[in-house]
Amino acid sequence: MLIDAHCDVLYQLWKDPSISFKDSSKLHVTYEKWMKSNVKVQCFAIFVPDTVPNNLQFETALKMIDIFYEKILKPFSKIKLVTSKQDIENLKEDEKGAILTLEGCHPIGTDLMKLKTLIRLGVRSVGLTWNNPNAVADGVGEPRGAGLTSFGKEVVETLNEYNVLTDVSHLSYQGFWDVMELADYPIASHSNSYKLCNHPRNLDDKQLKALIAKKAFIGITFVPTFLTESGNATIKDVIHHIEAIYKLGGEDSVGLGSDFDGTFDVVKGLEEYSKYNTLYHELRKRFSTTFVEKLAWKNFLQNMPI
Questions:
Q1: What is the percent of the chain with per-residue pLDDT over 70, rounded to a whole number?
Q2: Into how many domains does the chain fold?
Q3: What is the pLDDT, as a whole number, of residue 296?
Q4: CB of 100 within 8 A of CB of 122?
Q5: How far apart are CA 39 and CA 30, in angstroms?
């Protein structure tokens, strides 16, 4: 059993409505590949690109939610909506769980009601930024590097109130520390070790230790440029990042957040979703059964607030 904390299938299906989630060769993650894999629960991110005009961003987020319900949940009876730990525990042996997440708060502008609407529609984890700045905070791509705004603090407090995860992946360095002070349920859905690969999207040891101290989930991502500075990566490189966080004391934090369908570049040996089985086999050869279970699903499950 595996839980994957991040993929961008919704973005791909929104961008090209002709793509079939069932079996499209254009997708890393499809229904058919999912059913053959060890992945039990998949998080589906709502990612609205910055090319969408500001006045249409919230509407676009709603369209992606509609895609989630109409093209992923509705046609496939074996895929179940997950909004709680209990939903995961209730999944039958042949069923898969789907969790809705938000990647970047730019679609809500400065309107908390829009955030609450997304939560009420099923969003259970919220990334505060993408790489660029918004009304909540700066992303890692903004040279200014500002932390949470006053509105951003209201957003985090709202996520606490509604028992929703606050995702620090893509967030500025100062924003990270602001979140760690305020968030009841922080996670990093798809970020790696900066010490092993000095990409700005990765987290340094100080950040990783702060997350570990709270037993917050840290999802290792399969984006090659986040794994190696050369941009050429194999399964061994994924395992090296897992080991790095484990050695910092992260046995109860580290997990998986692939970012499948969010990148064109792939890890050798992890070219698509069905290859998750290969990764799982390699993990079982290298680590104890107890740790593999934590890494694969228990660490994510323990971070779900409800």
A1: 100
A2: 1
A3: 98
A4: yes
A5: 12
Residues 32, 24: contact at Cβ < 8 Å? Answer: no
- For the stretch 203-217, pLDDT in tens is 999 999 999 999 999
The CATH number of residue 271's host domain is 3.20.20.140
pLDDT digits (tens, 9 = 90+) for 109-168: 999 999 999 999 999 999 999 999 999 999 999 999 999 999 999 999 999 999 999 999
Query: Rounded to two decimals, what is the model's pTM?
Result: 0.97
* Ordered DSSP codes for the chain: -EEE--B-HHHHHHH-TT--TTT-TT-SS-HHHHHTSSEEEEEEEE---TTS-GGGHHHHHHHHHHHIIIIIITT-TTEEE--SHHHHHT--TT-EEEEEEEE-SGGGTT-HHHHHHHHHTTEEEEES--SS--SS--BTT-TT-----HHHHHHHHHHHHTT-EEE-TTB-HHHHHHHHHH-SSEEBSS--BTTTS--TTSB-HHHHHHHHHTT--EEEP--HHHH-TTS--BHHHHHHHHHHHHHTTGGGTEEE---BTS-S--BBTBSSGGGHHHHHHHHHHHS-HHHHHIIIIIHHHHH---
Mean pLDDT of the region 37-58: 97
Dihedral of CA 231/24/129/171: which sign? negative
What residues pair up with 39 in beta bridges, in sequence order? 2
Provide mean pLDDT across the span 242-261. Answer: 98
pLDDT-derived band at 199 (thresholds 50, 70, 90) equals: very high
Measured in whole angstroms, the distance separating CA 259 from the mean position of its chain's CA atoms is 7
What is the span of the domain harbouring residue 125?
Answer: 2-303
* Beta-carbon count within 10 A of 23 CB: 10
Task: Give Cα separations from 294 to 14, 61, 168, 240, 258 (angstroms).
Answer: 33, 32, 21, 17, 16
Backbone angles phi, psi at 221, to 5 degrees: -105, 155
